[in-house]
Amino acid sequence: MSYSFEYIDIILLAMIAGFIFLRLRGILGKKTGFEGKIPPQFEKEFQKTNITPKPVSENFDEVSQKEFLKGAKIAYETIITDFSDSDNKLIASKPLLSKKIYDQFKEALEDRANKGHFAEITFIGIKSAVIKTHKKIEDSLEVTVDFVSEIITCIKDKDKNIVSGDSDKIKTVYDTWVFSKDIKSSNPNWLLINTIT
């Protein structure tokens, strides 16, 4: 009679052990090791440019995207605000601009100054910043961002008469900017290489 109780105990323990095993398997999963996966919104872009996620510096994952957008927003505000500089100096923005963009901005500022005009820009804020595309070209990563911002802006002449814009009206501005970074460089900065209108 005592043997039958021992068998029942063994069966019960086996059932409990099996239940615990199944629960752990359900919670922890069956697979082991790191299984990196490209975020869905960039999967097509990776396929187009024949990129496979290898080193972290080349893998523009979700965390990298968030960090990038934080910096991109700061760069956007800095560059827009700096463009109102009446002394024709892009001091704060220069490290954020490619030579091509820097030269274009400088030329526009000089042209404005030659006309005796100056800009008044009040940056209200960024409503949204969304990564549109991401691709790798040789040793560079290029990221295109759609910005929607609110700005009060106007151009005045030397007598402070408004030539264009409105000093009292908030304007919604839509910009598409392309940033680039050399993945082999120790310089962490991204450069603005193009503006699309």
UniProtKB/TrEMBL annotation:
Q: Which SUPFAM superfamilies match?
A: NTF2-like
The UniProt keywords, alphabetically, are: Membrane, Transmembrane, Transmembrane helix
Domain of life, source organism: Bacteria
Matching SMART domains: Tim44
InterPro entries for the chain: NTF2-like_dom_sf (IPR032710), Tim44-like_dom (IPR007379)
Domain named Tim44-like: residues: 49-197
Which organism is this entry from? Pelagibacter ubique (strain HTCC1062)
Task: Please list every transmembrane segment annotated in the UniProt record, as residue ranges.
Answer: 6-24
Q: Which protein are we looking at?
A: Translocase transmembrane protein with Tim44 Pfam domain
